[in-house]
Amino acid sequence: MYCLQWLLPVLLIPKPLNPALWFNHSMFMGFYLLSFLLERKPCTICALVFLAALFLICYSCWGNCFLYHCQDAALPHAAHDPAIVGT
């Protein structure tokens, strides 16, 4: 379970508010995970725990899934709010 200390913080990195940066964010996270899995070769249990956590976060549409954006989340409407973005 030592390798989970490098995988679990990836789930806590927030998605950018600007919708134009979502693709760049998802590509960065995908390449980071792919390079981590190829370089460090985590144990099977750690990889399964991480994939289960990623699946549950993306399935619940919690708003922090970097693979895709759920239609039910309020992030696109909040991204245009001047009080949040500061424009």
From TrEMBL:
One of its GO terms (cellular component) is membrane. Its main location: membrane. It is found in: Membrane. The chain crosses the membrane at residues 20-38, 45-69. Keywords: Membrane, Transmembrane, Transmembrane helix. The keyword Membrane applies. Coiled coil: none annotated. The keyword Transmembrane applies. It holds the Pfam family BC10. InterPro entries: BCALP. Acts as a tumor suppressor; induces growth arrest at G(1)/S checkpoint and apoptosis via RB1-dependent and p53/TP53- and NF-kappa-B-independent mechanisms. Modulates expression of genes involved in the regulation of proliferation, cell cycle and apoptosis. Belongs to the BLCAP family. This is Bladder cancer associated protein. It comes from Hippocampus comes.
